[in-house]
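retry 2 of 3: previous attempt timed out while embedding flavin-adenine dinucleotide. Reduced batch size to 1 and resubmitted. Inputs unchanged:
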Amino acid sequence: AYPNVRFVEGTADTAGRDGANLVVSVQGENIAARRLILATGVVDELPSIPGLQERWGRAVFHCPYCHGYELGQGRIGVLATGEHSFHQAMMLPDWGPTILFANEAFEPDAAQAAMLEARGVEIERERVVAVDGAKASVVLDGGRAVSLEGLFVASRTRMASDLPAALGCEFEDGPLGPYIRTNEAKETSVEGIYACGDAARGAGSVSHAVGDGVTAAVAAHKSLIFGVH
Ligand SMILES: Cc1cc2nc3c(=O)[nH]c(=O)nc-3n(C[C@H](O)[C@H](O)[C@H](O)COP(=O)(O)OP(=O)(O)OC[C@H]3O[C@@H](n4cnc5c(N)ncnc54)[C@H](O)[C@@H]3O)c2cc1C
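retry 2 succeeded.
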């Protein structure tokens, strides 16, 4: 249906400028274009607790809005990784009874403890040593296990690709990790290069990524007609 669109399978290995063009190399093939939109995403880094990684996206999640409701008001855990876990623990009781596993990574101050108590959040301070079971059963240092419908963890993120940095894009320091700085048109700090999706916002979702992609594409097209603003 779109004969002038070509899909290229493979990893973009390098990218750089060649005169007026930006050139992306995909496994040996150099592809030149006047504008480039980066949509390379991020990689989530989880705490190294046995059983966590293999349950990622199935019973271990990071976004209450994506997965809270799906747990059908079952018991929910929050595995603390730092300050951000306080926000997760405050949000989640709307979707099920919630336990915050402090895991020596977060200790609420008096005000936070009062807020958590008002939301009915239980705090467990024994260290988490593993996650197992069909869903997410949190195994504590002393051997006790707490069965959950789902476990939330605020992962750290890093760029999935080195290309944005190699192209000279500037970054913002987000709450979960770095992301590419863009203006309201989703143009990066490098003229002619746009970015969208998780790589270019603090926290994302499919609908944000799609919307940002449209913004970037419209701006890239307009810039070819009216010049880069
Ligand atoms: C566990 C989990 C559950 C989620 N659940 C939901 C949900 O229920 N609803 C929701 O809306 N969102 C959800 N999200 C968030 C959603 O997945 C992301 O916001 C969305 O996928 C971002 O889209 P993206 O295109 O920016 O990045 P991605 O989907 O990560 O796509 C980026 C792509 O670029 C590729 N890539 C990277 N570098 C290169 C390169 N050099 N060359 C070629 N290709 C490259 C990657 O391999 C990847 O395929 C969830 C996220 C996670 C981690």
